[in-house]
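Practice set, problem 2.
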Amino acid sequence: MTPDNVINARNLNISKCAKKALVFTSQTRDGLMVSPGSSSCLVATYDASEWHITKVNHETGHQCRLSLCDVRKRYFNLAQLSAQDMLPHLVTPEMEVERIFNSLRYKYLRAVHLSKVSNPQTYLHYSYNKAFQTLAGLKIYQGNPPVRKANDDFWREAGFTAEAKQLDWQKEQEELKRVLTLLKMINRKSLSRVYAELIAIKPGFHELYLHRDYFDGNAIPTGKSPRDHVFRMLRNKEDLSSLALDNFPPEMNKRNYFGYAPCNVTEGPFVFRKSLDVSYFDEIRRIRTKRQIRTLKDKFHILDYYRHDLSTLDKLERFLELAEPFCRYPALTS
């Protein structure tokens, strides 16, 4: 292995994340860097004080090593590219999950704005969950009602317009499929930890931040599903050692995780970690009282629209300007 095949961990100044696999973002930082003509992402892994770059195809599982020169020429199209130059383009895969859901939140608010509703504030509520899900193309389970609705009736009756429906709702679903598959491929020995982090991202943070009964003992799930185990862990009723996963549970496939807990989108908030080494799972577990919730802003960028005055289209339009940066990875500290 020549020096050109590695990125020195000391140069990257991210030794705190040495045990994590990091992924390269696009140059515009609005998604993962994906190899042209394929579904391959670039993964940086740490080994013996050096970072190695691997191209991983999430569809076929094929992997191949790349040199720094390969990355510089094929993906950045630059004559020179130092390891330090790459630092802004390395994130954890879980940060892609954050970005995807922030993009969905932004898209949902855009849908509200495009529909020119009289009071946008009323749409920031879980009662619009089914409208959001059907805008995104998900089929609503209706049981056995006397009269079955057409799926599109849910968003139409809620007051959304065809223009809102025509937004590209598939983009985030495909991105989520890619990163969930990638997470399973590169974390086979730590699936329990990864699963716990994903549930903490959605819906754990939302529930802690907005649910008034979060600390009510009666609100703590008592079931035996992996998800209920994680909910108890987040409230410090269990430890991670109580969960042992060989595979992701069914709710962690693309469509299920995308559509699960839709109030995470309709009510928010926008949120992004401030540092590569911040964990949603760990930080939520540190919060023991409602008063401590305010300390989350030390570790996360948070933009709350549920409690924001968005009662007019003009106010919503100005808020969308504030929210748009959450569709890209933030500048990070290490």
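Problem 2, part (b): a different protein.
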Amino acid sequence: MYSPYETLSLRRVNMGKIDKVLREMVIANQVKDIDVEGKFEFDNFVIKGIGEEFHDLPFFYQPYTIVLPQRKTTIVVDLRPYNGTSLKDGIIHRMAGNETVNQLLCHAISIGYWREDPQQFIANQDLPLNTYGSLVAETISRRLGLDPEATLKVMAAFQFFYITRSVIDPTNLNDDDIRLYATMISRKMKVDLSTHYDVAKQFEPADFKDLETFMSKLRMLAWSPRLAKLSAGDLVIMLAGGWMGQGNPKETMMVALEFPPCWLSLNFICAKNKFYQKLPLGQVLKRLDRSNALQSFVNTNMVNYFGRVYE
């Protein structure tokens, strides 16, 4: 999965018109630099923005990727819905303190690096893997009243699902792959290998295709009768209200459940801005902040990925 528009929440949205208009705009150099010329140009991709009205272009709230021959991959962000952005002399200027726009740019940068090497990208990030399993499992447990054993199994299962988002075709996973990923997760979470391997072995590779198929299998497992009616749609509704900001925060949270580049950007904003630590994700992050883990996470990502957003 290389795009937020492949997720369960957005894959049924007809993006044909937006795709056509954005391709034409990229070819005609009508998409704009942000802050200063060339600021968001990276080795293998460039981030451009839309900051003025185009009558034929509806708003879109997640970064959109355009790939054309003999051009760098262009990741376009729509900055029209956000306060504090303006277009002057062909450059989009933004208000530095608008964390919704900052998150959108972090998401776009994450997509650029994700497209280059998703497995390496996800392997470099321990904290988002931990928060993903914790937030999802705790939310389900609280709503459904799961016992501790079932909650731990759900957490391990969702962490495995998260890791498999970096696999081009998770339905082709073999036992060696499953053991490898289970080992990786267990080491990151500092738990015994059996914690994740035993859970992952209860799924077939086809179950990791997407959130819908994964949840279908989860309902069939005998971990708790209270999981029997939990659908992917139910889970999305449970968690969608866990983000805030301008634009479409519910959509952003729904996308993040299936798309690690978006999940990373939410974790980064929460870790960097104490105001966001009031949110459910922020509360999980604060609880996991041992040995200065949050500051280390922020510093590493500022150096490796997101420094330009805050320059």
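Answer key, part (b): The chain has 13 helices and six strands. The longest strand covers residues 45-50.
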